Amino acid sequence: MNSKALLAVVFVATFALSRMPGLLPPNFSAAYAFAFCAGAFFSGALAWWLPLGVMFATDIGLNFYYTSQGVSVWDLPNLENQLFNYAAFAVLISLGRQFKGQKSFFKMVGGGLLGAILFYLITNTASWLFNPFHNPEYTKNLTGWITALTKGVGGYPATLEFFRNTLLSGGLFTALFSVSEKLTNESPAEKNSGQRESETDTAAEPEEAQA
Question: What is the spatial distance between Cα 53 and Cα 46, in angstroms, rounded to a whole number?
Fold first, then answer.
């Protein structure tokens, strides 16, 4: 298995595990780092379909699970809310593309934190703007927008608590994925070995020509 395939397996396994119901606090997820790091570490279409495809598959599985628990998740407002999330994840992948080839661990973690902030701003602003659940707190003015970003809906934990978990998990899982990327890359010994073999072959060519 090559390094990119192994890295993809690590990403998918970590993300899938983090989505198990009740395993992690609300909004504490590998999803933000998964989208950002996929954009940074993978090339071409893989950077897009891997995170979005896995998210879609696990969302379907979770929807069936919650339906079996008596929770209504297939109604239009909930599906519209999920679409907002996918739009935000697409932004995180695009952000990750700007970090492609970045070797600095701390810059990668900083990018993951920035991605988590963007996800928080995009999804909560979209919830306020489109208000798919018709929350009375989300009035169409500055007060309603600030409420969406800080307090949220009555009867639920404050939005800022969700933001804290989003930020912490974004940084933590970006660090984990960045370390995984470095570990799955070709080792220096392997690179030097390949270089020595090339030099040996080059040196052998004149001798063969003389023969």
Answer: 10
Residues 147, 29: Cα–Cα separation, whole Å = 23
Q: Indicate the SS3 state at residue 197.
A: helix
Q: Which two tokens stand for residue 103?
A: 């070797």
pLDDT (tens digit, 9 = 90+) per residue, 129-162? 998 888 899 999 999 999 999 999 988 889 999 9
Tell me how crowded residue 88 is: count the other CB atoms within 10 A of its CB.
22
Q: How far apart are CA 119 and CA 105, in angstroms?
A: 21
What is d(CA 81, CA 84) in angstroms, rounded to the nearest whole number? Answer: 5
Q: What is the DSSP string of 124-188?
A: HHHHHHH-TT--TT--SSHHHHHHHHHT-STTS--HHHHHHHHHHHHHHHHHHHHHHHHHHSPPH
Q: What is the pTM of this model?
A: 0.82
Q: Are 111 and 95 in contact (CB under 8 A)?
A: yes
Residues in the chain: 211
Structure tokens at 188: 């220096």
C-alpha torsion 81→117→178→37, nearest 10: 40
Distance CA 41, CA 57 (A): 21
Cβ contact 138:147 at 8 Å: yes
Q: How confident is the model at residue 101 (pLDDT cuts 50, 70, 90)?
A: confident
Phi, psi of 115 (to 5 degrees): -60, -40
Q: What is the DSSP string of 79-95?
A: HHHHHHHHHHHHHHHHH
